[in-house]
Specification:
The chain is α/β, with parallel strands linked by helices. The protein has two domains: 115 residues, Periplasmic binding protein-like II (D-Maltodextrin-Binding Protein, domain 2, 3-Layer(aba) Sandwich), CATH 3.40.190.10; 101 residues, D-Maltodextrin-Binding Protein, domain 2, CATH 3.40.190.10. The chain is built from ten helices and ten strands. It has a five-stranded mixed beta sheet with strand order 2-1-3-10-4. A five-stranded mixed beta sheet has the order 7-6-8-5-9.
Length: 268
């Protein structure tokens, strides 16, 4: 009888110990499990696509020792279109524009986190032609009769198109070239039109021309022909992860990131 009681007692003690251990693991605050925070969504000008994607591994490496980790996703497009998306309530944590006009509009609407706006990089406007084309060596050649199609970004929504318009107007050839325009919804469509030969020439950023082996740069616009090509960036008030968004801007402004941007042709 004593043996049976002893066995029951030991069994009950074992069950109690298991229950205590399981309960401790389930409810103890001293054993937290790190969970990834909500990813950051960056709405960025299309001309930054390759470079931002190339520095993403650098950012992820910088996050390895930080918990919880933060993932980054991108939404690339024309700056004007992205601006309208944000004005219409589209989710985004950070906006990077290819022009001041679009960022100014959001700032005037009170949509930026105060103190976060800063300039990211600069760029240059260039005239490109298909790789085997001849006869166009300067902007003024766009007025020639043999040049039939000229691709530019839509000036109302594409900053590269706005810089193109300013340049051609200051060169006094806007009205002559205007009937030849092929309007594109972003600067990469301009590049594609020249690559394919559908356009005899196009105006894009210097960094866009560098990524294509199918076009040639024949002229670079003097900086006094258009407004400075500056890419401002800022955190949006609708972000759900303010500290991570600010940290990402610090990463973009870091020497390591800026070295990558310069290698890609920015800040020249």
């Amino acid at each position: 009888m004593n043996t049976r009681r002893t066995f029951k007692f030991l069994a009950l003690m074992t069950i109690a110990a298991i229950a205590l251990i399981v309960g401790f693991r389930l409810f103890s605050p001293s054993l937290p499990t790190a969970q990834a925070e909500a990813p950051l969504l960056i709405s960025s000008a299309a001309s930054l696509k390759e470079t931002l994607e190339s520095v993403k591994p650098l950012y992820e490496k910088s996050q390895q020792e930080k918990q919880p980790a933060v993932n980054v996703n991108y939404n690339f497009g024309a700056s004007g279109a992205l601006q309208q998306q944000i004005l219409n309530g589209a989710p985004a944590d950070i906006f990077i524009s290819a022009g001041k006009k679009q960022m100014d509009a959001l700032e005037q609407q009170g949509l930026l986190v105060p103190g976060t706006r800063q300039n990211f990089v600069t760029n240059r406007l260039v005239l490109i032609v298909p790789g085997n084309a001849t006869g166009v060596t300067r902007f003024e050649d766009l007025a020639k009769a043999e040049v039939r199609r000229v691709a530019i970004g839509e000036p109302r929504s594409v900053p590269a198109g706005q810089y193109a318009e300013e340049t051609l107007k200051n060169l006094k050839i806007w009205e002559q070239v205007q009937p030849k325009f092929m309007m594109a919804s972003n600067v990469r469509q301009v590049l594609a039109a020249v690559e394919s030969g559908n356009a005899d020439a196009g105006l894009v950023y210097a960094t866009d021309a560098r990524i294509s082996a199918q076009v040639r740069v024949v002229a670079t616009a003097a900086e006094n022909l258009h407004a400075p090509i500056v890419y401002p960036m800022a955190v949006l008030k609708r972000t759900q992860n303010l500290s991570a968004a600010k940290a990402y801007l610090e990463f973009l402004a870091s020497d390591a990131t800026q070295a990558v941007m310069k290698q890609a042709g920015f800040n020249q």
